[in-house]
Amino acid sequence: MGNLAWLNGKISELDDAKVGVQDRGFLFGDGVYDVIKIYNGHPFRLISHLERLQRSCNAINIELPELIGEVERIIEILIKESGCTDGFIYMQVTRGCAPRDHFFPIGAEPTFLIYILDLGFPSTKTSRKITECITLPDERWMNCHIKSTNLLPNILSLQKAKEAGAGEAILYRSDGAVTEGTRTNIFAVVDGTVRTHPESPLILSGITRNIALDILREANITVVEEAFSIDELGRASEVWTTSTGLEISPVNKVDGQLIDTIVPGPVCSLLVDEFWKKVEAECGV
Ligand code: PDD
Question: Cα(143)–Cα(108) distance, rounded to whole angstroms?
């Protein structure tokens, strides 16, 4: 019971799982990760997250050390043995331990860590929070579709948001195009149309973003995957974030300016309701 880890084949308490100081994840941030939510003892959208982890590994030339079916089995065991009903699964793959050298090491085995973090309480529709955002220049690299453990620009931006009393920073490129948040994808209703940045190397292809797109299409609500500008964000009638951790979270303020409709607005309310129906159907919440 408790927070369990699986590290290169060995299960232990999370605090007892240890990686060598020469691990390239530690020295270079040379690795990728993914995060899955557990509802009611079931991992939500497991396969989509595992496929994304596989794509991230492929993108940086690391071979995922286990077949996807085997990772599913490990996760099942970890959830069962930890007794976790509501929490997160964190998975990280690095290029492994080797004497420090920028070149890829020859013969190093990747480090594969999977652990369960028990939330200790259920995430429910009513436990969602309304998020206040600030906007900041997007200072990240041009491969944000890879879920890299290099998160320095993300965490520095999120810390600025926190210090400004906000819960997320919405990032924009030098041309003014809004990309995403530091740990979320961003949607806005601009002049009556739902917009979000298209899939590209400038954003992470969020699993929750894709669920939101499915829900909107199922409800015959037009959604345009086209970047909106920071000016358009300023006049949006609804803004929300999507992420595994915070699900669909309505935004009430951007840079101190209140969104002028009741928050959550009609489109976001529909998304929240339909999102939780999908969680219920898959995880029996
Ligand atoms: N973050 N964009 C970024 C930069 C992210 O880091 C995340 C997720 C998302 C949303 O993706 P998804 O819906 O698949 O969770 C978008 C995770 C949860 C994290 O870093 O903990």
Answer: 25
**Which structural domains are found in the chain, ordered by start?**
4-118 (3.30.470.10), 126-283 (3.20.10.10)
Give the mutation target among 143, 146, 240, 243 for probing the ligand 1 site: most ligand atoms within 8 A of CB: 243
Residues 245-273 have pLDDT tens digits of: 999 999 999 999 999 778 999 999 999 99
Residues of the chain with confidence (pLDDT) below 70: 1, 127-128
Query: Which atom of ligand 1 is least distant from the CA of 242?
Result: 13
Q: What is the pTM of this model?
A: 0.97
Beta carbon of 37 within 6 Å of any ligand 1 atom: no
Q: Following CA atoms 277, 278, 281, 285 in sequence, which dihedral angle do they give, to the nearest 10 degrees?
A: -70
Q: Where are the beta strands (DSSP E) in 213-255?
A: 223-225, 238-243, 247-254
